């Protein structure tokens, strides 16, 4: 864990917005494993001697997982250029790509990225929620 330093900058992105992203990203990571077969038959035991095949239509929660991801994509897509760059920089700091003392460099590098791909880029990070959380802690927000 990095030691927070006193910031000499103001954040464009609200730390509470980043915390919301943390919760949504962690919800996506904790979603049902893909190894659950949708619509598969399973044998169930009715009593000691009888068994029957049971067919299910999958879990409704699978759709809500996609909704959570779609919501997060939309929320990230609604960020302005400065907010999107800072969100990426926070993730990079949390991941250890940059030190907090390199905040300006991280934001400048993040600004060079295509903002339209920010959601796809961030959601491709397997530990996005953790890295955003650690980045927020590192910058003292």
Automatic annotation (TrEMBL):
Pfam families cross-referenced by the UniProt entry: DUF3775
Domain of life of the native organism: Bacteria
Record InterPro entries: DUF3775
Name of this chain's protein: DUF3775 domain-containing protein
Organism name: Nitratireductor mangrovi
